[in-house]
């Protein structure tokens, strides 16, 4: 193996080691509900727990369609363990001008202290105050020092 090929291979290994860990959460019918991306070294288990280390970043991508009046929002009391960074963002999944198409909501968090915290996102219409959300997404974050 010559030196340029070795350098490219080494660079690919470094990039792979830095890549975020991705976990897709499926609904009962098998369709994807959300994708959780976390810093390299983070893990997910079958019980819906995300294991992080202080300083790790976590992004939840969850499908939604605001043209129906429903929005995803956090129903999560900010804590000193896992802090939401910024406000939730929405990205349309189709070309501009397509009316009624859905997209993805992005929620970003940062692990700031050791501990365990439940995280809950709700899909609801903000003006329907006495109506429960039509969908919820919950997981537990366990942050190690």
Number of domains: 1
Which stretches are poorly predicted, pLDDT < 50 over at least 5 residues? 1-19
Name the average pLDDT.
Answer: 73
CATH architecture: Sandwich
E-strand count: 11
> How would you classify the quaternary structure?
single chain
Helix content class: 10-25%
CATH class: Mainly Beta
**Molecular shape:** globular
Briefly note the CATH topology name: Immunoglobulin-like
> H/E element string?
HEEEEEEEEEEE
If you had to describe this structure to a student in words, what would you say it looks like?
By secondary structure, this protein is mainly β. It has a single domain, classed as Sandwich (Immunoglobulin-like). Helix content is 11%, strand content 47%. Strands 1, 2, 5, 7, 8 and 9 form a six-stranded antiparallel β-sheet that branches. The longest helix has 16 residues. The chain is globular, with a radius of gyration of 18 Å.
Describe the structure in brief.
This protein is mostly beta strands. Helix content is 11%, strand content 47%. The N terminus is likely disordered.
Main attributes of the structure:
about 140 residues, mainly beta, Immunoglobulin-like, six-stranded antiparallel β-sheet, 1 helix, globular, disordered N terminus
Compile the SSE list and pairings.
Elements: H1 3-18, E1 21-26, E2 32-38, E3 43-44, E4 49-53, E5 57-64, E6 71-74, E7 82-84, E8 89-92, E9 103-111, E10 115-124, E11 135-144
Parallel strand pairs: 4-11
Antiparallel strand pairs: 1-2, 2-5, 3-4, 5-9, 6-10, 7-9, 8-9, 10-11
């Amino acid at each position: 193996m010559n030196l340029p090929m070795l350098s490219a291979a080494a660079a690919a290994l470094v990039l792979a080691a830095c890549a975020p860990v991705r976990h897709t959460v499926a609904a009962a019918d098998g369709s994807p509900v959300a994708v959780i991306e976390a810093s390299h070294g983070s893990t997910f288990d079958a019980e819906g727990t995300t294991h992080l280390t202080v300083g790790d970043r976590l992004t939840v991508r969850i499908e939604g369609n605001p043209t129906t009046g429903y929005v995803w929002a956090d129903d999560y009391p900010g804590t000193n363990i896992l802090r939401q960074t910024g406000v939730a963002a929405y990205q349309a999944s189709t070309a501009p001008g397509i009316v009624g198409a859905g997209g993805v909501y992005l929620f970003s968090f940062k692990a700031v202290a050791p501990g365990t915290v439940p995280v809950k996102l709700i899909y609801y219409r903000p003006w329907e105050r006495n109506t429960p959300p039509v969908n919820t997404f919950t997981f537990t974050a366990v942050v190690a020092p």
